[in-house]
């Protein structure tokens, strides 16, 4: 199973199909309470049976976050925790992202691929970055939005355009 989804609610199957994902190849766990959800998440992450484990949580404390990180490392799984938390509040994670719709739903006469504004807000040893990603149905993969593909990365505030570090603010 390449993907596991754990949470109080399950993903919308027709939406998964629209993104080229087969719901039959998705391991889903619908947990009744937060304790069951954390237990399920830790077990699936540790098992190594899913390449990516996605979980919806109400909140994650530092100790539970560390336990999940160790379980994911042991199982070789990537762990994505979806939660809503105020921006100034610390999180027990290696990285913190903000993902939002990049454009409104397309009009029927002018269909556009779905797009998201993705921002890396926090990364241990890294720098903030942002990009607009589009879903490419033909390749079943994300790509930089068409307007950004052939554009040089913008310099960060106070930096020269000659900065060749790999972490750059895009867009």
How would you summarize this macromolecular structure in one to three sentences?
The protein contains 3 helices and 8 strands, in the order βαβαβαβββββ.
Structural summary, described in words:
- The chain is about 20% helix and about 30% strand.
- The protein is of the alpha/beta class.
- A four-stranded parallel β-sheet has the order 2-1-3-4, covered by helices on one side. A four-stranded antiparallel β-sheet has the order 5-6-7-8, with no helix packed on it.
- The radius of gyration is 18 Å and the shape is globular.
- It starts with a strand and ends in a 27-residue tail after the last strand.
- Strand residue content: 25-35%
Q: Which residues sit in consecutive blocks of at least 5 with pLDDT less than 50?
A: 150-171
Order of helices and strands: EHEHEHEEEEE
What class do helices, strands and sheet pairing give? alpha/beta
Helix content: 10-25%
Tally the beta strands.
Answer: 8
Largest sheet: 4 strands, parallel
Shape by Cα distribution? globular
Rg estimate, integer Å:
18 Å
Give the number of helices: 3
* End-to-end distance: 35 Å
| Strands side by side in the biggest sheet | 2-1-3-4
């Amino acid at each position: 199973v390449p993907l596991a989804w754990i949470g109080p609610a399950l993903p919308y199957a027709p939406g998964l199909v629209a993104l080229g994902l087969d719901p039959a190849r998705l391991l889903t766990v619908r947990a009744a309470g937060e304790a069951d959800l954390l237990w399920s998440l830790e077990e699936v992450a540790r098992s190594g049976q899913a390449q990516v484990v996605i979980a919806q949580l109400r909140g994650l404390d530092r100790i539970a976050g560390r336990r999940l990180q160790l379980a994911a490392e042991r199982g070789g799984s990537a762990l994505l925790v979806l939660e809503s938390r105020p921006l100034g509040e610390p999180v027990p994670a290696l990285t913190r992202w903000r993902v939002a719709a990049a454009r409104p739903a397309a009009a029927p006469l002018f269909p556009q691929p779905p797009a998201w504004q993705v921002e890396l807000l926090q990364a241990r040893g890294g720098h903030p970055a942002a990009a607009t990603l589009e879903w490419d149905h033909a390749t079943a993969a994300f790509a930089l939005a068409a307007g950004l593909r052939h554009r040089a990365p913008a310099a960060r505030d106070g930096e020269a355009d000659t900065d060749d570090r790999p972490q750059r603010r895009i867009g």
